[in-house]
Amino acid sequence: MQPDYDDCWLRYREVRDEALRASYRRLCSHAYVSEQSRELGAVREELRRGLGGLLGRDPHLWQHPPRTTDGFLAVGTPADMDVVAQCVDEERVADLAEGGYVITTGEWEGTDVLVVSASSDSGLVYGTFHLLRLLSNHEPIEDVHVVEEPASPDRLINHWDNPFRGSVERGYAGQSVFDFETLPDLRERYRDYARLLASVGINGIVLNNVNTQIPGRDSANEAMDVLEGWRLLETRYLEKLTGLASLLRRYGTTTYLSVNFGAPEKIGGLDTSDPNDPEVAQWWAEKADEIYDLIPDFGGFLVKADSEGQPGPYNYDADHVDGANVLAEALEPHGGRVWWRAFVYGSHKDRAVQQYDTFEPLDGEFRDNVTIQVKNGPIDFQPREPVSPVFGQMPETELGLELQITGEYTGQHVHACYHVPMWKEVLEFDTDPEGHGTKVKDLFTDEGTGMAGVGGPGEDRSWTGHYLAQANLYGYGRLAWDPDLETEAITDEWVRQTFGHDPDVVETVTDIMHDTWPAVIDYSTGGIGLMHMMYNGEAYLENHYDPGPEEWPGYTGATEDGIGKDRNSEGNGYAQQYPDALADLYDDPESCPKELLLFFHHLPWDYELSDGRTVVQTLYDNCHAGVEEARRLREEWRTLEGEIDEERYRHVAERFDEQVEHAGIWRDRLTDFFYDYSGIADEKGRVPRED
Ligand code: GCV
């Protein structure tokens, strides 16, 4: 029976080009796959499904080299299979980083062989998906020679799923994929999710929300408090996770949990969770032992501490080093790791200043198995932010880059917004142009470093709530694997696998994808460094979708005289957290990149920019341009009617209708707001508005 959800980019449609299909059939109709280990079951299943679709007929799977063919595929380690050992450089394969693989061609007793080889099972899984991607992208394979290994050792997806409610915080794709009520029963959908993750190289999954408690926010409903995520550490719930962890393991994905810093009190019955109390340390150590008895390859803990109502070391007069290290010590004997989030609150009114101020002085004090997980920017996943000054400035600490796959502030999967260009901008950022010159992407290659994508996949048929948002999940995985990949290459792969190879379709979808992010920036920020102007609301899951600029004077800095925030040497000194070359660049409005200008400077409304336009006119123009662009993208999408499958076409077309409408609401609200403060009318007569 066909599942009632989408297969995303793993569509495996039959190759129509006859010459190409003949070549694929010659080398892939017969596949010899090692039987040695558990992950190879996953390889066999994927080959059966993938080759069956692409070749238009079921492949023959062998447990020994087939003899009567004029070519075959061999998947295995050199140690397990002579065929493989004969075709690859064994030393090269042995030297590959965990997860790495080789795809190459060779010969076995006069027969051509296409080989996928690795020294680990997970490498074989990734290599198999890579091969299927080559075929899906209609790449030639007769002379193929691919050597791949992941840039980052840890490539995590963080689920913000609330296990007992079934909801997903900032997830815009329905309920949680994971049904914690019915675990340990396994759903087919778990396996298909594991396949999606493995196909792009994601190798770790945090199953539950970093908000493991929601104090005060649901106080009217006590029953809910009883059901918060911190309870997952109770034995009865841990026991439910073993089968899921085992299934994920078959696809090379390790299981992690978000934990509550107050767990020793909440679950252990201790009267403190003070990290410096030996009984607390003992409790964490025993809890870790228990977890590893159940899940031997458990990855570790993700912690949100001292932030937005979550308890942390500050509750006990301790600091983040004490907090992270006590958990790390407990995990250390088992090889586990603590991912400690830098998204903390503290003494500063301006959140931008907080993280560097809190963590940089602690550089070098964390245990080796602690990773400090830092959001890409200093605020909170805004459409565009400067790169966090923490990057490049904590050389003695393992860092992780946290990106948001889900579109909390970029239209919440009603709007199309492709995040890959934004992430590329972050990854290519030079953290110290006149110093060590390390780009962000170079910081995550050592043991203990990595990337964490906050993912929103859910029960929705599309997995992501918007068919085009699948590209963000895809792109995140691909960049975590290889941050050198160009946006265009990732888009092209994704578009072809998802929409097929018709040149007009490929070009149209590609262009739309690339133009979405700039449009969102324009209509929801004005494009010159303002941000955080969304409606918040008072409910637990604040809205963050509609505009509400007047709620945030501390972020916009709007006054009658001007707009923007002095995060410079004359203001709160945020710019000075960067190395000198960047600090100087940002400190002077004349040299500050235009797209970040108002983030660093409060400027008069009539301050003239290099193109001769004033600040306020630029804001008006950009807000209008963003909406026009959204409208144009909708028109572009409409040209695809009848050219792609009806379901995707219709869904995205409807979403674009809503996006254009909602972008107009943002434009009007922001431009009214700018006019109300500045009193300066739009030169083009659009503001003040008549109604
Ligand atoms: C999980 C923002 C989001 C919250 C999120 C928080 C975080 O504040 O709005 O939903 O909480 O970031 O990253 O911890």
From TrEMBL:
InterPro entries: A-glucoronidase_C_sf, GH, Glyco_hydro_67_aGlcAse_N, Glyco_hydro_67_C, Glyco_hydro_67_cat, Hex-like_dom2
UniProt cross-references to Gene3D superfamilies, sorted A to Z: Alpha-glucuronidase, C-terminal domain, Chitobiase/beta-hexosaminidase domain 2-like, Glycosidases
Glycosyl hydrolase family 67 catalytic domain ranges (all copies): 136-463
A Pfam family assignment: Glyco_hydro_67C
Keywords from the UniProt entry: Carbohydrate metabolism, Glycosidase, Hydrolase, Polysaccharide degradation, Xylan degradation
Protein's UniProt keywords contain Hydrolase: yes
Glycosyl hydrolase family 67 C-terminal domain span: 464-686
Domain Alpha glucuronidase N-terminal: 8-131
UniProt-recorded Gene Ontology molecular function terms: hydrolase activity, hydrolyzing O-glycosyl compounds
The keyword Hydrolase appears for this protein: yes
GO biological process, one term: xylan catabolic process
Residues spanning the membrane: none
Family: Belongs to the glycosyl hydrolase 67 family.
Protein name, entry field: Alpha-glucuronidase family glycosyl hydrolase
Protein source organism: Halosimplex aquaticum
Lineage: Archaea, Methanobacteriati, Methanobacteriota, Stenosarchaea group, Halobacteria
